[in-house]
Amino acid sequence: MQYATELEATINDMVQKGRGVLAADESAPTIAKRFKAINVESSEATRRAWRSLLVTTPGLGEYISGVILFEETLGQNAVDGDAITMTMTRTRTMAQAAWAQKIVPGIKVDKGTIPLALSAGDLVTQGLDGLAERLRIYKLQGARFAKWREVYEIGPKAPTQHGMQANAEMLARYAAVCQAEGLVPIVEPEVLMDGGHDIRRHAEVTEAVQQAVFEALRRHHVALELMLLKPNMVLPGKDCRRARADEVAQATLQVLRRTVPAAVPSINFLSGGQAPEEATENLNAINQQGLNSPWLLSISYGRALQKTALNTWLGKAENLAAAQQALVQRARLNHMAMLGEYDVALELA
Ligand code: 13P
C-alpha cells in the first residue's frame, strides 16, 4: 500500500491507552439543533467560536488524541488565545490548533443518509462519488483521518439482510478509498438506540451488522490494522428499561468478540444519545470486563463529551474558560474509564 507508513504513523498518534477521539463533526442541521437548545443562533461565526473553544482547550490533548471536524471547520482559522489572555491573536487553522496539542485532526466525509430505495425501513449513506478528490483536498488542509457513518434503525423487520449488506458495501468502499489516499478510515456502523427493543435485540442486530461490515472490508482489501472501528455500545432501546453498566459491557463485548478481528487496533465507541455520566460508566465497565481484549477500548464521543461544556458556554465569551474546564473534566473522567478506574464519586470531585 502506497501510504502504509503514513497510515501507521497516524494510527500510532491516535491509538494510545487513556486517550480517545472527540467528535465535533455535527452537520449544519445537527449543530443548529444543539445550539437551539442553548438559545444560540447557528452561524459561521458561532460555529467557529464553539469549535475553536473545543480544539484550543488547555490540557485536552492529555486525554484526547483525535478530533473529527466538519468540512467547514477544517477550512476555518481558530479564534485563538485572545479570549483567554486578551492579548495574543495568532493565525492558525483549526487543524493546526488541534495538532499543537497532539490532537490529530480528521474529517467527516459522508454526506448523510437517505432511505435505501425499494427497501422499506433501511437507510443508506451518500458521498462516495468524487471521494478520492475530496480527500486529497482535506489532506492538504491537514486532515489525517476520515469518518463515515452508516445508520441502522431497528424496526419489526429492519434492518434487512439486504440493507445491512448495502451499508457494509458503502463503508468498505469508503475505507478502501481512504487507505489508498493515505487517510486512516474510522468505520462507523451505528445501530440506533431509538425504540422500545430490548438489549438482546440490539445485540442481535449489532452482531449481524458488524459481521456484514467485516466481510465487506475483507472483500475490498481494507487493511484492518490501519483503520479504527466506531460502533455503538449494545444497549436497550431508549423506551425500554435501562440496563446496568455490567450488563451493557457483557453484551457489548460478546458481540465484538464474535465479530471484530484482533487486527483492528482500537474500538472507539460513539455515545449515541447516552447521558455523559452513563456513557462514561458503561465505558468503564467495558474496560474492566475487557481487560484482555486485543483492541484498545476507547471513545469517539460527540454529545457525551460536549454536552456539559455546551451548557456552560451558552454562546458567551465570558463562559469560555468554564466551558473548557467542563470539557477537560469530562475528557478526564473518560480517560479514567479507559483505564477501568472511573467511579461515580469522581463526578463530584
Ligand atoms: P455521539 O457520540 O453524539 O453519538 O456522536 C458520535 C458521532 O460522531 C456520530 O456520528
Please, could you describe this protein's structure?
The protein has 13 helices and ten strands. By secondary structure, it is of the alpha/beta class. It has a single domain (about 5-349), classed as Aldolase class I (TIM Barrel), CATH 3.20.20.70. Strands 8-7-6-3-2-1-10-9 form an eight-stranded parallel sheet. The protein has a two-stranded antiparallel ribbon with strand order 4-5. The relative contact order is 0.14. Bound molecules: 1,3-dihydroxyacetonephosphate. 1,3-dihydroxyacetonephosphate binds near residues 23, 149, 271 and 303.
Concise synopsis of the structure shown:
This protein has 349 residues and is of the alpha/beta class.
Please specify the SSE layout and strand pairing:
Elements: H1 4-14, E1 20-24, H2 28-36, H3 44-55, E2 64-69, H4 71-74, H5 82-85, H6 94-99, E3 104-108, E4 113-115, E5 123-125, H7 131-140, E6 145-152, H8 161-181, E7 184-191, H9 199-219, E8 228-229, H10 245-259, E9 266-269, H11 276-289, E10 296-301, H12 303-313, H13 320-338
Parallel strand pairs: 1-2, 1-10, 2-3, 3-6, 6-7, 7-8, 9-10
Antiparallel strand pairs: 4-5
